[in-house]
Design a protein that fits this description.
Blueprint: H1 31-44, H2 48-51, H3 60-82, H4 118-134, H5 151-179, H6 183-199, H7 212-220
GO molecular function, one term: kinase activity
Keywords: Kinase, Metal-binding, Transferase, Zinc
Pfam families: Mob1_phocein (PF03637)
């Protein structure tokens, strides 16, 4: 049966006002667009472990950049479907179950971590990620423009923070996801994300602790 299509394939005409942040588009005709199409084609084969591998002859930074943009779009749309259930009153703290709580800091505007509600935290987070993705010095979209030396550490921070949105959705809103019949979508997206960060060792194992059981379950199905 293959997989459900990656979320990034949803035609733009069907995006409702629920979409949380504007989609970050990779310019058509660019090499990164070709890479994204390659990623989508291999995803369709149903083998996610294979789909995340660096295509032969490709630049690792570029592959990580394209996939980071794609995961941002996927998480954006997944969170967009449950924003009405994630409110100041339902989620006064950004958490992933009772043992994990996240405080926001971006190092520039907010240097000291602050406690805030989940919707506020996720808004800060997604705006911060979007600013990074739009920065041509960090995520160059033109061929021949080199990636900065700190690109990998920037990408790791982005992916670490995007993971927290998955963790919050799974811990606090999974019942809503099931009601909306979005769980296959969420599971496929998360599995793709986890296999990708595992393939290139992009997120510290301790950061993944809130969803460790799920990660093990997803991984064992694929062995």
């Amino acid at each position: 049966r293959g997989l459900t299509a990656p979320v990034s394939c949803v035609p733009s005409g069907s995006r409702s006002s629920k979409t949380f942040k504007p989609k970050k588009n990779i310019p058509e005709g660019s090499h990164q667009y070709e890479l994204l199409k390659h990623a989508e084609a291999t995803l369709g084969s149903g083998n996610l472990r294979q789909a995340v591998m660096l295509p032969e002859g490709e630049d690792l930074n570029e592959w990580i950049a394209v996939n980071t943009v794609d995961f941002f779009n996927q998480i954006n749309m997944l969170y967009g479907t449950i924003t009405e259930f994630c409110t100041e009153s339902s989620c006064p703290l950004m958490s992933a179950g009772p043992r994990y709580e996240y405080h926001w800091a971006d190092g520039t505007n907010i240097k000291k971590p602050i406690k805030c509600s989940a919707p506020k935290y996720i808004d800060y987070l997604m705006t911060w990620v979007q600013d990074q993705l739009d920065d041509e010095t960090l995520f160059p979209s033109k061929i021949g423009v080199p990636f900065p030396k700190n690109f990998m550490s920037v990408a790791k921070t982005i992916l670490k923070r995007l993971f927290r949105v998955y963790a919050h959705i799974y811990h606090q809103h999974f019942d809503s996801v099931i009601r909306l019949q979005e769980e296959a979508h969420l599971n496929t997206s998360f599995k793709h994300f986890i296999f990708f960060v595992q393939e290139f060792n992009l997120i510290d194992r301790r950061e993944l602790a809130p969803l460790q059981e799920l990660i093990e379950k997803l991984g064992s199905k694929d062995r």
